[in-house]
Target: Helix-turn-helix transcriptional regulator
Amino acid sequence: MELPKPVESIFYFSGTLVHRAEEEYMRDHVLCHITEGTLSMQDADGENIYGKGTTLLIRKNHLVKCEKRPPVTGGRYQMLFILLGGELLQEYIVSEQLPEPIPGTLAPDPVLVLAPKPALEGLLQSLISYHKNNYAPGPALLNSKLKETIHALLEQGDHLFTWLFKKEKYVKPDLATFMERNFRFNIPISKFAELSGRSISTFQRDFLDIYGMKATTWLRKRRLQAAYQLLQHNSKASDIYLSLGFEDLAHFSRSFKQEFNILPSQVSGKHFLRDKP
Model:
């Protein structure tokens, strides 16, 4: 049996500048431990900030904007991330002879704050010590650490078995409600379709029925509308374009000018969306 690739599964991040993750959805379950600094996580329900010493478990396919921040007093942020991919989890089910969970709708807890139980604490400290001592363990040891990670998580309680292994059965939510909650996330249309419980063709058809335009067009217009409203309340373009799903400031400014015939810097109290054609 081919082993998972540990080099692509265990990461230690450190830096002195604020760093925003490029991807805005989790491809795999992610275990994160914050050694120094803070981690901001903004999803459709708002922003949560987690501090030093916190250990989090983030569910696969969760839409979230993550930002690593150094301590306000100075120094470096330091965070450990462990990716728990589907292949690894399936191999664990087989090797431990565990029952296959029945697919279904998952509980509404995409982010869990974990208790500092001995097995988890021991695992984290061993991995952090490798980094501090510039020790590069080989594939066999790292793969054993991935398996140890799952053991440690299951020690947290029976609910973690379902959380980790249950295959999600997507329900088909109301598309308008789903898009209004998630339009700020810069993800492919195919991912919007998947997370809304639809094939791409069904998603596109439903979208046209509801909005009378393509999803790409609606997303651009809805993001720009949200930007206009924020700029009216004295936000700066440089502070909001990433949070609204734009990849760079120049593209945001061009799109804004095309949509409203003014630059973002020209928005003031005398400009209102209701006055725009």
